[in-house]
UniProtKB/TrEMBL annotation:
The central subunit of the protein translocation channel SecYEG. Consists of two halves formed by TMs 1-5 and 6-10. These two domains form a lateral gate at the front which open onto the bilayer between TMs 2 and 7, and are clamped together by SecE at the back. The channel is closed by both a pore ring composed of hydrophobic SecY resides and a short helix (helix 2A) on the extracellular side of the membrane which forms a plug. The plug probably moves laterally to allow the channel to open. The ring and the pore may move independently. It is found in: Cell membrane; Membrane. It comes from Halobacteriovorax vibrionivorans. InterPro entries: SecY, SecY/SEC61-alpha, SecY_dom_sf. Belongs to the SecY/SEC61-alpha family. The chain crosses the membrane at residues 68-93, 114-136, 148-168, 175-194, 214-235, 270-289, 309-327, 367-385, 397-417. Component of the Sec protein translocase complex. Heterotrimer consisting of SecY, SecE and SecG subunits. The heterotrimers can form oligomers, although 1 heterotrimer is thought to be able to translocate proteins. Interacts with the ribosome. Interacts with SecDF, and other proteins may be involved. Interacts with SecA. Keywords: Cell membrane, Membrane, Protein transport, Translocation, Transmembrane, Transmembrane helix, Transport. This is Protein translocase subunit SecY. The keyword Iron does not apply. Its main location: membrane. The lineage of its organism: Bacteria, Pseudomonadati, Bdellovibrionota, Bacteriovoracia, Bacteriovoracales. It is a multi-pass membrane protein.
Length: 437
């Protein structure tokens, strides 16, 4: 039982290490960029609210953006460059070959990090230039001493903050419970949820929100969480027949299943759709007030604000497009059909090779349709029912539930392996001086 006890101790260490690094992440997120007036920036966003791309960045940075913290960019630049290289692998054969080779994957990871630094420098310099224009309602400038020195220092600081987050995520992946990048995004979103709950309770106490409205809001969130949790674990089992063979008097092969997730695209379609819709609205905020185009851009900004009819229509259409675009990247039908043929396996009633790929493509299109419909319902319907925007949005909810499910599955698999090992040893089926068999 000593080895079983050792596995439990290992699990405890993983949990403690993951928690410790997430605490470090939250502490670093409180450190502001040098040269920022904390009170002025707090007053500015309290009055204006940001809107557009600002809210999206702030959500995934755990509130670090609106504090102009050293982690204001969050981990999103790395995710963006990773997606770009994934897309390039679909159109450039050389990159696709590198993705299938272990050494090639290391090179792509190195290129991804270099591209992340470049993107962070561009975004950091642009963010510094934008924040220099912000003025609080009291007339105080958010950046008291603007200029080239501030922009360069901010650019370097924000790039270093993102790379620190990337390093932190890699340590969590190596020694923790789950993919570190996913857990960092999870922590950034989860830490903002208590603020939402407090705001709703405050509105109810002040009489600005009725009891029925508050109950409806809570019920919608609870139901949405259960629906997301169910769909995230739902998959279609595709039967696969392996050719039987005898090795050392043992028979290998037989019937198995190939799982295909209902939500094949995952959380990326709503993230990409939100980014595309937020860009025009955010750009409109930078148009000078005396410009002749200002009224037109203000109209666009108001129409594309979350909850508006035009926003919901375009958001739903982009989710459908991104789902069909991103699902084949996640579930590579050609690679799977080649792998099945190589291992002398086939889907009953379907010929190996191209016919198998066509069959998998058909199933993937059907799953993508239901996946896109599910994402539209989760991301749009709750706001329509409650009539208000919330941090418990569809994209945030998908990330929270999916990461939580994966963490619980990792813990369960660890516990099951421990129980199996203990049961196996209790029957005496192990090597040693006291073995029974």
């Amino acid at each position: 039982m000593s080895n079983a006890h050792g596995r439990l101790e290992e699990l405890k260490k993983k949990v403690f290490f993951t928690f410790l690094l997430l605490v470090v992440y939250r502490l670093v997120a409180q450190i502001p960029v040098p040269g920022v007036d904390a009170q002025a920036i707090s007053s500015y966003f309290a009055e204006s609210g940001g809107g557009g791309l600002f809210d999206l960045i702030n959500t995934f940075s755990g509130g670090a953006f609106k504090r102009f913290s050293v982690l204001a960019l969050g981990i999103m630049p790395y995710i963006t460059t990773s997606i770009i290289f994934s897309l390039l692998g679909e159109v450039i054969p050389q990159i696709q070959e590198m993705q299938e080779d272990s050494e090639g994957q290391k090179k792509i990871q190195k290129w991804t990090r270099y591209a992340t630094v470049i993107l962070c420098c561009i975004q950091g310099y642009s963010m510094a230039a934008v924040f220099e224009t912000f003025v609080s309602p009291g007339g105080a400038r958010v950046i008291p001493d603007p200029g080239m020195l501030f922009r360069v220092v901010t650019m370097i600081t924000l790039a270093a903050g993102t790379m620190f987050l990337l390093w932190l995520g890699e340590r969590i992946t190596e020694f923790g419970l789950e993919n570190g990048v996913s857990l960092i995004i999870f922590a950034g979103i989860a830490v903002e949820l208590p603020t939402e709950v407090i705001q709703k309770i405050t509105l109810f106490r002040n009489g600005e929100m009725g009891g029925l409205e508050l109950l409806t809001f809570a019920a919608v969130i609870v139901v949405a969480f259960f629906v997301v949790a169910f769909i995230e674990r739902a998959f279609r089992a595709i039967p696969v027949q392996y050719a039987k063979r005898v090795v050392n008097n043992r028979v290998y092969g037989g019937n198995q299943t190939l799982p295909m997730r209902v939500d094949t695209g995952g959380v990326m379609p709503p993230i990409l759709a939100s980014s595309l819709l937020a860009a025009p609205a955010t750009f409109a905020t930078f148009i000078p007030a005396d410009s002749a185009f200002k009224p037109y851009f203000d109209t666009i900004q108001q129409s594309l604000y979350p909850g508006q009819l035009l926003f919901n229509i375009l958001f739903g259409a982009l989710i459908v497009y991104m789902t069909y675009f991103y699902a084949p990247i996640q579930f590579k039908t050609k690679k799977i059909s080649e792998m099945l043929q190589k291992n002398n396996a086939f889907i009953p009633g379907i010929r190996p090779g191209d016919k198998t790929k066509e069959y998998l493509d058909t199933l993937l299109n059907r799953m993508s349709f239901f996946g896109a419909l599910f994402l539209i319902v989760v991301c749009i319907v709750p706001s329509l029912i409650t009539g208000a925007q919330t941090r418990f949005g569809g994209t945030s909810m998908l990330i929270l539930v999916s990461v939580s499910v994966r963490v619980m599955m990792n813990v369960q698999s660890f516990m099951f392996a421990d129980k199996y090992e203990s049961s196996y040893k209790s029957k005496g089926k192990y090597n040693g001086n006291n073995r029974r068999f």
